[in-house]
Amino acid sequence: MDYLTALQVLDSTIRLATPLLLACLAGLFSERAGIFDIGLEGKMLMAAFFSAAVAFVTGSVWIGLLAGIASSMVLSGLHGLASITFRGNQLISGVAINFLAAGMTVLIAQDWFKEGGRTPSLAGGARFEPITLPFAEALRDVPLLGPLYYELISGHTVLVYLAIACVPATWWLLYRTRFGLRLRAVGENPAAVDTAGVSVVGLRFAAVAICGVLCGIAGAYLATALQAGFVKDMTALRGFIALAALIFAKWRPWHALWATLLFGFLQAVALRYQNIDLGGVVIPVQLMDALPYILTVIILAGFAGKAIPPRAGGEPYVKER
Questions:
Q1: What are 129-149's pLDDT values in tens digits?
Q2: pLDDT tens-digit profile of 209-252?
Q3: DSSP state letters, 223-240
Q4: Which residues lie closer than 8 Å to 260 by C-beta, 6 or more apart?
Q5: Are 299 and 44 in contact (CB under 8 A)?
Q6: Could you tell me which of 90, 289, 295, 107 has the C-alpha nearest to residue 204?
Q7: Residue 156: beta bridge partners?
Q8: Contact (CB, 8 A) for 55 and 49
């Protein structure tokens, strides 16, 4: 593999890892507050549809982004209502959200656009376009550093840079602010937080809302930046891969970045290298496509080391009288 090819693979890695990173950070906020959310997939899918549909109708990708975030937050509100207010089973609520999104997106898409459950292709102002960073063209021919800056760092959409910026922002919010301290505490010992006079319900709803915003951006990225419209089940289990990455990262923001880049790299390799011949033994394309999911199974089977979730995770809090 030459230098330019390696940069192209890494460039694809960043693009493919972006929705995983956003969803992983979304799950991190929710689970740090004690709310397990396997409905990341459904929220991303709903956001992908509404962002593409609204962007197509209005011609504005920014309005589409807001619509995607709003639709994701509606599902987050339903999950919060079920698991926080009514103290229901958080896993069942997440599964219900996934099924709801999978069915509703296709049904509404077919009713609105009559194109077999997809939206029309997006173009122009209805899509996020790559951004060329300053001096990228001028430095393009500089050996080593020029292609690195031009191919790998420059040329991404604004949502890619936003996703990367969310990593230090999440770290700062969780570990350097009073809100973050309380959020982490409510996932470990909600009774102690309640005793200190802080609303456990309020903190958990705040975490669920942040989760909805990040999932909304992730879904909008899929439909308006990575691809040019919505198609059925376009999230392709990315929500579950993000959850696996979250466990792999042990619920820490910087580790989440490297974990999602690893999954993105496997996807990039699978897309670029098809039917690899290793001395007469041909690796089928199906095996390459399955690499990210195989890694997901391995991680969830416990081969990534012991990962201890927040102690109060998945448990509804009942205020003591």
A1: 999 998 888 888 888 888 888
A2: 999 999 999 999 999 999 999 999 999 889 999 998 998 888 99
A3: IIIISSS--TTTTTTHHH
A4: 17, 20, 21, 24, 242, 245
A5: no
A6: 90
A7: 131
A8: no
Task: Give the single-character DSSP code of 30.
Answer: H
Tokens in use for 24?
Answer: 């992983």
Whole-number Å distance between alpha carbons of 168 and 172: 6
**Token pair in block for residue 49:** 């549809």
Question: Please, which residues bridge with residue 283 across strands?
Answer: 276
Kindly give, in sequence order, each residue whose CB lies less than 8 Å from that of residue 234, ignoring residues fewer than 6 positions away. 45, 48, 222, 223, 227
Q: Say which residues have a Cβ less than 8 Å from residue 278's Cβ, sequence separation at least 6.
A: none
C-beta separation of 122 from 132 below 8 A: no
Query: Dihedral of CA 41/156/28/63: which sign?
Result: negative
One-letter amino acid for residue 317 of the chain:
Y
Question: Residue 45 corresponds to which amino acid?
Answer: L
Q: Looking at residues 177-183, what average pLDDT do you find?
A: 95
Phi, psi of 39 (to 5 degrees): -90, 15
Instruction: Classify residue 111 by burial, with Cβ atoms within 10 Å: 0-12, 13-18, 19+.
Output: exposed
Per the prediction, the chain carries an average pLDDT of: 90
Task: State whether residue 276 is helix, strand or coil.
Answer: strand
CA–CA dist 260, 16 (Å, integer)? 9
- Model pLDDT, residue 290: 79
Distance between CA atoms of 201 and 318, rounded to whole angstroms? 10
| DSSP assignment letter at 156 | B
pLDDT digits (tens, 9 = 90+) for 48-76: 999 999 999 999 999 999 999 999 999 99
Cα–Cα distance for residue pair 256/260, rounded to 1 Å: 6
pTM of the full structure: 0.94
Q: How confident is the model at residue 312 (pLDDT cuts 50, 70, 90)?
A: confident
Q: How confident is the model at residue 275 (pLDDT cuts 50, 70, 90)?
A: low
